């Protein structure tokens, strides 16, 4: 067989080096070609990761036993010998940029799996790579400033499905050096709230059209990075793509949960998903809480109530039991009391009476008030049980106004009462007591003191001159950092504080993981949650419309009004076809319902992969958490080349 | 009220005194003396119950109430006995502690009655009764004296005591209500509900009393005639809480009835989640797809609320006009779209669900000049009278109303709703399984006809319309169109035999198991004569909370006069007559039908209560219950 020269560039020799010429015959297999090149370079190194890449055809030659003939490689082919794993800069949902070794030769689906394995994120099938938005020149400077955490040296022990973890949940491979440990912490602990300007500056979708544009940037899961034009050291975003989060377990999912939370939080802050004012306040309160608890809780370990320690509890009780009667009395009564002079005001129609001072006592869940301290032994003027009541702050630190507004339900309606406190401390204690009482808890409840602290720290946020507030300043965050631009515009930071505080009272006692989970739950309960939009043109229609793809249905949406015209559920779907030539998708549903559309904002492949991907996600069973059916995934999402 | 608290207090203090004493004396307790003193300690403060309201109760109500109270007493005794036995078993010289002073701060929830007369303690009425059976209650023998060899044992004793003390302290504080429940047929039943009982518990209780088919639609609901409101309680709610909000002169009622809309969303989720689709598609929905819908919306990480939006009429504050507005339901509340604003961005919150409940408004066309009669109302449960804080909404048709009310319930209760449904289903299936089993196994004419009757009546009949009969009479009368089979023949296939000995431990973990079902009731029946009326038992709080050992030891003869007066559920003879013409479906045969005398021979021993502490009421997030739970865990490990 005739020998001919094959041109191969070798990465190691630098881009300028002239291509190698190797004399080959067509029946030489790829492994042999590589061997010859390596011998010729005379470079001693581990070549095991290298493979041949066929530039013209954008194809990897990964089968060493295939001959050149079988690959149909002729003398005109330009090949390059290059490593399969290259560094890639990855932007995670929380904004951290990591430099990791990623596989450039295998389908992106598997590359993502590899990366997730490294980062200890379970269920990598839910994530994918998104190309970054093309940055304008102005922003390039900032991009350079980005801190990149290099994890390229990190190696996961092979073999196991899940990397071995240390007791604190950190995978062993992160424990190599303090640097990597710090990176792991960065990944698994949510970051403090960004400055409000960041939120304002960041790109946010202004309509369905914008929301649809995002999806154009997903990489194709069935092709390799290099095939899709991604080069070493390029930047990609790692994001959750499919909004069905399988088997989320805080115990194993520290990184996953945190990153998911960060993605959700940014989706909220950037108005990618609409939420109402009330919902925004709750999100803000949760963010505030999560930020606060993340700082205090060093590790997101599974929090177990102190009661687990039975012996100490017993001991504590025994002490109480064995002490004399007065102590027993304490125990029975237990409830400490609050008592003080406060001012009372009842807004009623046609009365202009102002605040009047009374002696107030707070016991269990009730407030009683008397004319003066001396009359405490007599019947109170009134007793109000706060169980089930609404408590709202009416506070202005600047004006030294500390009022508590109570709406106490009674048979005849709501009884509106204002209590005015003298100072911050008094206010925070009475407010905390009212809050607890409204939930049916007494002052004896262990959350009382933390509730008081919470109220105080919130008051601090309202302080008009943060500079004057000495040591705590770094803890104080701007409430504008917690809400989207819409609400930044609508309210001043000071106005937001009481609103967020109001929402905060319901979440302030949650441990970190529960707060994260709660945030995700509320996010997932939003009507627009998990809808990925694509602008499409339905067959026979003249106007562009929007196709919403979710985990269980397709939605046809009017582009201009946003109204839902029709929904089709996957479980009524019979089959779908893609005509790659005319770039049209045709879907058949039960009952002879057929729809066909061409995709405008994203390629057909992306839409097809989205739908197929969701159907794949639905095939995952609850029990089986390990081992994915890759074949099925590619079958459902791949294009013609995969079939 | 103050006296009441004082009394309770001094009792508790006395109690604590005893406790501390016994803690000091490590080994020998004055067993008999303490148990007697405990009897004396029974005081019953009927804080709010007064003579007039009692007079207004029907005779049988009063009897039922009495029975309840007696059951309480006997239960406490039984518990004591059980504890003693347990200690004996453990061969540990465990000083027993006196029983708690059981302060029953109960009062009658007025039903159709106004109560204005001054409070009168009923202590005088009851104390003699309580006293009267002291002599008959033979104090258990002091346990055998063996020196505890290990320190462990001492610690165990100590922790047991603490645990017991805690339990008693808690028990003493439990609030109880006497509730009159109106049945479908207009009759009523009176039962005692303590504050730890959920609606589910009370329903189970009522199932036993009424022998209805236990299907999932049975619910308890409250009506408010003044506001013309009605609301079905959710199974996980505490019953005492909402009832405590009623005013003293309230004409509100508690109803026991079937409400199909209660769990309709789980039976036909498509009607709620795909309500926009055409009727035919919805009707033809396959079961598999329905399941999928339920799974999607209720089994995910967060509950999905039906995507409701539509024009509802809102009653303007205290005006006679109803204004149409576009309302939307979201998980976080009901919103409306201000005129000329966008639907996505400018939603205004109308109400959030934390502090309100949703009620059906009845005949509002008439009362408030509503556009239709399909109205629902959102208000704080405490509000009982006309107020500006009540929100009235009116829908175009009844279906929209059901949609909205159900949607709001899903948003408000979330997962609990589904949990409730699953519990109800388990219950219903268990019942029907048992019924089927009994029909197939004992395919005797008598059994099937009994069942027929219960089904034919189809409703939870109160016992009132049927003349109360003495339990003893049951055996005697038996008019035989088909003659009842000899007991021996009925017995073998009876499920009781297999199921009843189920250990307490399992029943506690799985409250749905038939602790209080006909099977175990039959067990109760098997107790030696004189037969204890099963009504006594069924008045007890159901398994999850029960601090009382379930099947009590041989009852005290002193009870008989009382229990016998308690009207029994419909006796078999009558049912046999009525059932004869109707085909045979499967509700539980009334336990009263089981031939008492025959079963005694094979009667399994009443399950012994081994770990009373595990029954500590759930849900108490406080220190005490935490401790109790931890304690139980620790014991289990040892």
TrEMBL record, chain A:
GO MF annotation terms: integrin binding
Swiss-Prot/TrEMBL keywords: Cell adhesion, Coiled coil
Coiled coil regions in record: 307-334
Superkingdom classification of source: Eukaryota
GO CC, one annotated term: cell-substrate junction
A Pfam family this chain is assigned to: FERM_M
Protein name per Swiss-Prot or TrEMBL: PH domain-containing protein
Species, as recorded: Esox lucius
Organism phylogeny: Eukaryota, Metazoa, Chordata, Craniata, Vertebrata
UniProtKB/TrEMBL annotation, chain B:
Annotated spans, Disordered: 130-150, 433-624
Domain Ras-associating intervals: 175-261
Polar residues compositional bias, start-end: 499-509
Pfam family, one: PH
CDD domains with a match to the protein in the record: PH_APBB1IP
The PH domain, residue ranges: 305-413
Topology of this chain in the membrane: Peripheral membrane protein
Keyword list, A-Z: Cell membrane, Cytoplasm, Cytoskeleton, Membrane
Family membership: Belongs to the MRL family.
Protein name: Amyloid beta A4 precursor protein-binding family B member 1-interacting protein
Organism: Esox lucius
């Amino acid at each position: 067989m005739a020998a001919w020269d094959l041109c191969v560039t070798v990465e190691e020799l630098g881009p300028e080096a002239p291509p190698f010429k190797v004399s080959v015959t067509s029946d030489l297999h790829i492994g042999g070609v590589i061997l010859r090149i390596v011998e010729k370079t005379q470079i001693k190194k581990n070549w095991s990761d290298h493979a041949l890449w066929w530039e013209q055809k954008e194809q990897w030659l990964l089968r060493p036993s295939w001959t050149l003939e079988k690959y149909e490689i002729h003398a005109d082919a330009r090949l390059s010998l290059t490593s399969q794993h290259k560094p890639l800069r990855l932007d995670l949902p929380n904004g951290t940029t990591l430099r990791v070794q990623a596989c450039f030769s295998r389908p992106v689906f598997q590359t993502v799996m590899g990366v997730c394995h490294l980062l200890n994120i379970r269920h990598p099938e839910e994530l994918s790579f998104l190309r970054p938005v093309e940055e304008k020149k102005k922003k390039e400077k900032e991009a350079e400033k980005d801190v990149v955490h290099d994890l390229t040296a990190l190696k996961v022990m092979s073999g196991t499905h899940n990397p071995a973890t240390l007791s604190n949940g950190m995978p062993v491979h992160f424990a190599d050096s303090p640097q990597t440990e710090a990176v792991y912490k960065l990944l698994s602990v949510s970051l403090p709230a960004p400055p409000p300007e960041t939120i304002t500056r960041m790109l946010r979708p202004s309509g369905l059209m914008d929301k649809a544009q995002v999806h154009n940037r997903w990489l194709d899961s069935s092709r390799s990075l290099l095939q899709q034009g991604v080069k070493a050291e390029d930047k990609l975003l790692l994001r959750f793509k499919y909004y069905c989060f399988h088997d989320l377990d805080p115990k194993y999912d520290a990184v996953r949960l945190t990153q998911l939370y960060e993605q959700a939080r940014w989706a909220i802050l950037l108005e990618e998903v609409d939420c109402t004012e009330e919902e925004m306040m709750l999100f803000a309160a949760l963010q505030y809480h999560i930020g606060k608890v993340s700082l205090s809780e060093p590790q997101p370990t599974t929090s177990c109530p102190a009661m687990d320690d039975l012996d100490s509890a017993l001991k504590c009780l025994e002490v109480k039991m064995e002490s004399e009667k007065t102590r027993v009395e304490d125990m029975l009564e237990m409830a400490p009391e609050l008592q003080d002079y406060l001012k009372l005001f009842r807004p009623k129609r046609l009365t202009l009476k102002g605040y009047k001072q009374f002696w107030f006592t707070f016991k269990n869940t009730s407030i009683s008030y008397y004319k003066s301290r001396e009359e405490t032994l007599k019947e109170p003027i009134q007793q109000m049980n706060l169980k089930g009541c609404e408590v709202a702050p009416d506070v202005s630190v600047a004006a030294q106004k500390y009022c508590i507004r109570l709406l106490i339900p009674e048979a005849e309606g709501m009884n509106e009462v204002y209590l005015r406190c003298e100072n911050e401390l008094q206010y925070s204690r009475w407010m905390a007591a009212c809050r607890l009482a409204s939930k049916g808890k007494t002052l004896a409840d262990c959350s009382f003191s933390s509730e008081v602290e919470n109220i105080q720290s919130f008051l601090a946020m309202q302080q008009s001159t943060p500079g004057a507030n000495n040591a705590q300043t770094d803890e104080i965050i701007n409430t504008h950092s917690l809400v989207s631009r819409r609400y930044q515009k609508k309210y001043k930071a000071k106005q937001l504080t009481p609103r967020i505080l109001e929402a905060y009272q319901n979440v302030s006692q949650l441990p970190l993981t529960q707060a994260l989970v709660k945030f995700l739950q509320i996010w997932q309960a939003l009507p627009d949650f998990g809808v990925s939009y694509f602008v499409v043109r339905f067959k026979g229609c003249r106007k562009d419309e929007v196709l919403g793809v979710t985990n269980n249905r397709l939605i046809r949406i009017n582009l201009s009004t946003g109204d839902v015209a029709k929904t089709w559920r996957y479980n009524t779907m019979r089959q779908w076809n893609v005509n790659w030539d005319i770039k049209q998708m045709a879907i058949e549903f039960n009952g002879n319902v057929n729809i066909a559309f061409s995709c405008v904002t994203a390629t057909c492949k992306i839409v097809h992969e989205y739908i197929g991907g969701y159907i794949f996600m639905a095939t995952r069973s609850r029990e089986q958490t390990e081992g994915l059916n890759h074949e099925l995934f590619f079958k459902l999402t791949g294009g013609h080349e995969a079939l | 009220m103050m006296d009441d608290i004082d009394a309770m207090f001094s009792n508790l203090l006395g109690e604590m005194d005893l406790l501390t004493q016994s803690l000091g004396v490590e080994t020998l307790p004055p067993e008999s003396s303490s148990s007697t003193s405990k009897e004396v300690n029974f005081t019953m403060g009927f804080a709010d119950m007064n003579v007039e309201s009692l007079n207004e109760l029907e005779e049988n109500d009063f009897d039922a109430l009495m029975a309840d109270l007696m059951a309480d007493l006997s239960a406490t005794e039984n518990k004591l006995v059980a504890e003693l036995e347990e200690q004996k078993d453990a061969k540990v010289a465990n000083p027993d502690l006196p029983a708690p002073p059981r302060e029953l701060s109960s009062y009658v929830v007025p039903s159709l009655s106004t109560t204005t007369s001054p409070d009168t303690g009923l202590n005088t009425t009851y104390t003699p009764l309580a006293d009267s059976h002291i002599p008959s209650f033979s104090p258990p023998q002091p346990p055998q004296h063996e020196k505890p060899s290990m320190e462990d044992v001492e610690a165990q004793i100590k922790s047991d005591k603490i645990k017991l003390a805690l339990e008693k302290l808690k028990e003493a504080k439990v609030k109880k209500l006497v509730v009159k429940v109106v049945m479908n047929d207009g009759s009523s039943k009176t039962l005692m509900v303590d504050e730890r009982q959920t609606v589910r518990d009370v329903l189970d209780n009522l199932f036993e009393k009424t022998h209805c088919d236990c299907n999932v639609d049975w619910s308890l609901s409250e009506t408010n005639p003044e506001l013309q409101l009605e609301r079905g309680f959710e199974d996980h709610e505490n019953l005492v809480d909402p009832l405590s909000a009623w005013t003293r002169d309230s004409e509100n009622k508690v109803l026991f009835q079937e409400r199909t809309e209660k769990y309709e969303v789980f039976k036909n989720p498509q009607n709620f989640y795909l309500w926009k689709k055409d009727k035919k598609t919805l009707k033809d929905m396959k079961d598999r797809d329905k399941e999928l819908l339920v799974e999607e919306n209720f089994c995910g990480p967060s509950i999905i609320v039906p995507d409701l939006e539509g024009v509802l009429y809102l009653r303007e504050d205290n005006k006679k006009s109803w204004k149409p507005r576009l309302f939307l339901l979201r998980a976080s509340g009901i919103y409306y779209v201000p005129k000329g604003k966008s639907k996505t961005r400018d939603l205004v919150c109308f109400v959030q669900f934390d502090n309100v409940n949703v009620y059906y408004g009845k005949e509002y066309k008439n009362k408030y000049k509503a556009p239709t009669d399909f109205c629902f109302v959102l208000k704080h449960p405490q509000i009982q009278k006309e107020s500006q804080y009540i929100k009235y909404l009116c829908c175009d048709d009844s279906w929209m109303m059901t949609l909205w009310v159900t949607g709001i319930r899903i948003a408000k209760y979330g997962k609990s709703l589904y949990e409730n449904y699953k519990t109800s289903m388990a219950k219903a299936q268990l019942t029907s399984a048992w019924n089927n089993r009994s029909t197939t196994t004992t395919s005797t004419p008598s059994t099937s006809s009994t069942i027929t009757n219960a089904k034919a009546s189809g409703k939870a009949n109160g016992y009132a319309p049927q003349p109360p009969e003495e339990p003893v009479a049951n055996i005697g009368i038996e008019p035989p169109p088909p003659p009842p089979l000899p007991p021996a023949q009925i017995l073998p296939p009876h499920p009781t035999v297999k199921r009843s000995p189920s250990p307490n431990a399992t029943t506690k973990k799985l409250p749905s198991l038939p602790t209080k079902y006909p099977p175990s009731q039959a067990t109760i029946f098997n107790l030696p004569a004189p037969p204890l009326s099963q009504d006594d038992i069924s008045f007890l709080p159901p398994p999850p909370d029960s601090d009382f050992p379930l099947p009590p030891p041989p009852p005290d003869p002193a009870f008989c006069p009382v229990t016998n007066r308690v009207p029994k559920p419909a006796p078999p003879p009558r049912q046999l007559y009525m059932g004869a013409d109707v085909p045979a479906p499967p509700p539980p045969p009334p336990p009263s039908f089981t031939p008492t005398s025959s079963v005694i021979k094979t009667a399994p021993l009443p399950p012994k209560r081994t770990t009373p502490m595990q029954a500590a009421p759930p849900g108490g997030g406080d220190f005490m219950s935490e401790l109790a739970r931890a304690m139980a865990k620790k014991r289990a490990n040892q």
